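Retro notes, structure queue

What went well: the backlog is down to a handful. What didn't: a couple of records were mislabeled last round, so from now on we paste the full input next to the output in the thread. Example, using Ferric uptake regulation protein from Halopseudomonas pachastrellae:
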Amino acid sequence: MSDSHHLPDPQQPHNHAHCVSHALSAAEQVCARDGVRFTTLRKRVLELVWQSHKPLGAYDILETLSRDDGRRAAPPTVYRALDFLQEQGLVHRIASLNAFIGCPSPEHRHQGHFLICLNCHIAIELEQSGISDAIAEAATSQGFTISSETVEISGLCAQCQAAA
Ligand SMILES: [Zn+2]
Ligand SMILES: [Zn+2]
Ligand SMILES: [Zn+2]
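Corresponding output:
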């Protein structure tokens, strides 16, 4: 079982360093299990994606890398690192924002279901398996085979509603 249920609610103030260290150690385990290399660049890109619970675009990642390293990071290498992280299930791509968000429980394969706040842009991953079941059932009833079922629900998070 995933221990993601012990992770803090991203909507509440919390020690985010804990989220980052959990994500990095989970990534190391996933890469070791799959026999793939968790290179310095891949790790660095994952850390950047995890800098908050808000999806981050490839361009922002490039900018930060270039600024921190004092030289322009080559876009193809960053895109390849993002592809790798996505293939390993370490990040999810949020299509509506053309951005990436770290996955808190990459140990098991799953589709991404997200609540995305229109105001603060936080993305909250839903882990209720019933969502996938309902989608699978609806697709089957149409004789449809699913290849991807990313769900992106936009609205206002609890924090932003409280602040309004
Ligand atoms: Zn956090
Ligand atoms: Zn996930
Ligand atoms: Zn919000």
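Agreed that this is the format going forward. Reviewer comment attached to the example: The pocket of zinc ion (ligand 3) is lined by residues 117, 119-120, 122, 156-157, 159-160 (CB under 6 Å).
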